[in-house]
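FAQ

Q: What does a record look like?
A: Structure on top, sequence underneath. For example:
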């Protein structure tokens, strides 16, 4: 599976969010490793998917830079479906299935933490289900950060509907509690067939999303409130 990310020569130092989007829809972060600038997604994948590979995490086979993009090559397991599509097909999952899947995701995330990485974009779209073995694979480390337990993050590159409430109310959040929150959204999604942003929660979220969208029209990613609300594929219901 080939995953191309746009390359910008401005993204050379430390871990810096880049404003803007490109043809493949994803802005990436870069970091300096041994004097060489590499996309953070590839660095994170190297840290979590090698020596030895972890069964619940997609394996990166290679990555390289072309003139206009970084190309990341991962394994492409047979007979898989991402969990978003799987839940869409099933409508919702049985509780014992959801429990089993959640356990697998937690094992994969704990492994990432043990290697110093927090995924930061846990959601159904970023989990591949092997339909033969019923095992999940965590993919898409495009929003990953290095684990710094006490750091307060004030930028967010994951999926807004899975982000913790303190991101909206305080404008900052910690990585590990944020990931726990996204697991809560994922669990709800699995057992209800959707992420469950309704009623007052939905209104508060929409207000914040619109306010951010207005602010970012001048500074950053041009996502509209609807896109933020639904995440990449939009709500099922
Ligand atoms: N190794 C893989 N094998 C099979 N399918 C994959 C693999 N990697 C990604 N996919 C599929 O492609 C989708 C998008 O991939 P991924 O999540 O890595 O990219 P993304 O950064 O979210 O994409 P975008 O650039 O659109 O934001 C996944 O939701 C999944 O359906
Ligand atoms: Mg993704």
């Amino acid at each position: 599976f080939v995953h191309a990310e746009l390359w910008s020569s401005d993204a050379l130092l430390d871990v810096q969010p880049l404003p803007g989007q490109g043809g493949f829809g994803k802005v990436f972060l870069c970091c300096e490793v041994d004097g060489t600038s590499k996309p953070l997604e590839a660095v994170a994948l190297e840290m979590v998917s090698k020596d030895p590979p972890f069964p619940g995490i997609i394996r990166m086979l290679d990555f390289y830079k072309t003139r206009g993009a970084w190309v990341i090559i991962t394994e492409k397991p047979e007979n898989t479906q991402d969990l978003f599509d799987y839940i869409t097909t099933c409508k919702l999952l049985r509780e014992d299935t959801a429990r089993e899947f959640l356990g697998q995701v937690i094992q994969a995330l704990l492994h990432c933490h043990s290697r110093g990485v927090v995924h930061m974009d846990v959601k159904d779209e970023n989990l591949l289900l092997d339909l033969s073995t019923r095992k999940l694979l965590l993919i898409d480390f495009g929003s990953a950060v290095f684990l710094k337990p006490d750091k307060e993050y004030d930028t967010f590159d994951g999926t807004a509907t899975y982000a913790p409430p303190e991101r909206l109310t305080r404008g900052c959040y910690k990585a590990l509690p944020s990931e726990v929150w996204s697991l809560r959204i994922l669990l709800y999604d699995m057992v209800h067939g959707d992420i469950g942003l309704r009623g007052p929660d939905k209104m508060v979220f929409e207000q914040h999303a619109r306010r951010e969208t207005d602010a970012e029209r001048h500074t950053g990613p041009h996502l509209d409130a609807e896109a933020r609300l639904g995440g990449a594929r939009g709500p099922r219901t």
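Q: Is there anything notable about this one?
A: The CA atoms of residues 103 and 232 lie 25 Å apart.
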